[in-house]
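Standup notes, structure subgroup. Blocker cleared on the magnesium ion input:
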Amino acid sequence: MSPTSPTGQASPANTTDIADIADIADITDITDEVPRLPVDPLLDDPGTRIVVCCGAGGVGKTTTAAALGLRAAERGRRVVVLTIDPARRLAQSMGLGELDNVPRPVPGTDPAAGGELFAMMLDMKRTFDEIVEAHADPARARAILDNPFYQSLSAGFAGTQEYMAMEKLGQLAARGEWDLIVVDTPPSRSALDFLDAPQRLGSFLDGRFIRVLTAPAKAGGRAGRKVMSLGMAGLQLFTGTLGKVLGTALLRDVQTFVAAMDTMFGGFRTRADATYRLLQAPGTAFLVVAAPERDALREAAYFVERLAADRMPLAGLVLNRVHASAAARLSAERALAAAEILDPAGPAAAGPAGDAGGAGGAPGAPGAKNLAPGGIVDHSRGQDRLRSARPSPEPHPPADAPPTPRTPQTAETTEDPRRPAQPEEAADRQDTDGLAAGLLRVHAERMRQVARESRMRARFTAVHPRVPMVEVAALPGDVHDLAGLRAIGERLASGAD
Amino acid sequence: MVSGKGGTGKTTVAAALALALAEEGRRTLLVEVEGRQGIAQLFETEPLPYEERRIAIGPGGGEVFALAIDAERALLDYLQMFYKLGGAGRALRRIGAIDFATTIAPGLRDVLLTGKACEAVRRRGQDGRWAYDAVIMDAPPTGRIARFLGVHHEVAGLARVGPVHHQAQAVMRVLKSAETAVHLVTLLEEMPVQETADGIAELRAAGLPVGVVAVNMVRPPVLAAPPRPEGDPAALAEALARAGLGGAAGLAGPLLAEGREYAARLALEAAQRAELAGLGLPVHELPLLAEGVDLAGLYRLARLLREQRW
Ligand SMILES: Nc1ncnc2c1ncn2[C@@H]1O[C@H](COP(=O)(O)OP(=O)(O)OP(=O)(O)O)[C@@H](O)[C@H]1O
Ligand SMILES: Nc1ncnc2c1ncn2[C@@H]1O[C@H](COP(=O)(O)OP(=O)(O)OP(=O)(O)O)[C@@H](O)[C@H]1O
Ligand SMILES: [Mg+2]
Ligand SMILES: [Mg+2]
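Run returned:
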């Protein structure tokens, strides 16, 4: 495609320039307009008091929260990270062996910059118990804690974990001991649950129904009057029915629970409201974490819209576990074609290409047949010619040989080593060819993934072009120690690549 | 029951299983309990109502029905069934009792969901045959599954008398019978595998029958053997050049690095496989479909399940 190619004489520099311009033009559409999320300035800014990591399940919220906390601490801030259900090995390496629901210093944090890192793992039942103990006299607290209904409630109906995470955040903020609090969010399917669930619990605790249940205990109150207005007959039908359906014992448990909790109800709502306002404050920064996958990015988009609607400060999107390639100029198609030349009998069709084929019967068989008959050398040349004849798909000249000048060269390298035909050399070469073919197939798979991920990313940025973003490369293994967290921190600060 | 860590493919595997088990002349029911219409999306149909309807014919020729259970509606049905409530049901709803009961009362929601599914399991047609040959539930994730299925225990204890008590006991009998199996979907990654191991231990402790482990999204091996990391870049560059690639010298390094990462991933996957093998359950693998799961992909997974004879 490049006008200099046919002559083959253009200076390499010249070729590169033109190709690069095309390259940049391509990329500008997707990358340049998306602002970069400035992670270090955000962490260093003393005005940043709370960072909340949200996102769909499994995208890397806990990892990101821990990595940000560690990085901020090692850059000099006094940080506490509130983690929720961290992976076991990560918890251990952060010194979170015990669940005691209070922050502990993280061993191994570098104190050189004068910062400190504390971490804790949320224990939701304990947090709930603590609220009860703090707000009811000992006898009443005991009655609540022993109530079977309370035990089920605190052990987790949907929403308790979210509520307790907010509660704990409020407590940590109130202690004023840290200048930065990094909050992980519970592993719910939807990122929105973190914002919605506490409201749900609040409205339950303040609900009409619970007032009705309380009514027999305090018939003189406003709720009691409401019930009276329903009419005594209605009330009897109502509690009678409930008794039948739920069993009177359960109903009694609920009623005693509600009666015992009654003094605390206002407290729950007030606290939930206060934490909610904390999240709207300018010192708070929400980071939405997403993996470059359709579902995760869809969740991220919902969340971004919701934050705007709730006037909560969004710092940006962390696109986590992104794949890249240092040999991106070699496309999947060309890598596969080359692999077939080097190793025609290889598992070509067993690769990802075969999987896309859907319901079409035995994958791989037809592809393998096509490859088998061709001799290596013939095939090689055939492929070369084929490629020379069509416009080069990649803009980068080094990998994509300009056809005319390189073809003879390639032919030389192809034929020269073959002439000596010493047995052991041939065997060596076969080994190397096999290795090369394998690596090319690995590369092809990687390139397909890179392409898929950038399509997903483009979908998000098309809708939310102004959301700052940073990409974090996928590490080859899981992240389960401070070294891994530092590596993620580096990538957060500098972006993938 | 199909459970597993969030996002590992519970809905997908449950749907594929419902298709796979639908042999000629048989019927399966695919049940959804989390109100997300994942089944409708997967089968590319409009949202499912609270009603059993046929959504597909399995590759074996049998019929697949689907049902999205709505806990609130299920509760009203129960009230209607047991008490002929009529208008009082609406009154309960108005006052927030239904809301309360289905979202707050401990496990009542879960009781209703599994109760409804068990009703379908035990239902017989007019000819005396089972209404469904298999009922497959797209169940809550591993973290909640033991509690979800064990909730009847809890409820039978809380509601010590009354119809709910009896209902809970009947459901528990079905769940603990040899006709039930909880299959766990996982990926070859540390956290899902860990969660699978924890889930199995919990299910076993609760006396619930564990079925198989389904390893989903397995990437088919691209290389017969992982590349040796110490590959010689110069020799590799020569080979790349032989294949007609320009700039081969510059490619060798990055390709070797990618090869090393690939080998590292294979090693991690092997470690996770070993972990799973130690769980004492049959392990089945399903491949990663490169372009995601559309209807054709779903049928492909169903065929693979048939070949693996779950
Ligand atoms: N950039 C990365 N490279 C490699 N592995 C990563 C990366 N980020 C996260 N992981 C791994 O992915 C897994 C899930 O990460 P993490 O626990 O942080 O997710 P999460 O969003 O908190 O999940 P959940 O919703 O279950 O709480 C972990 O095993 C973690 O080590
Ligand atoms: N074998 C597979 N190959 C490729 N993609 C898959 C495969 N199995 C599942 N997926 C995709 O992974 C995503 C998650 O799958 P699915 O919705 O079935 O998981 P889930 O466990 O039900 O999730 P959730 O916990 O959110 O209910 C979907 O986008 C699905 O299409
Ligand atoms: Mg987490
Ligand atoms: Mg699902």
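Discussed briefly. Residues 12-207+265-325+474-494 of chain A form a domain with the Rossmann fold fold (CATH 3.40.50.300).
Next: hand off to the docking folks.
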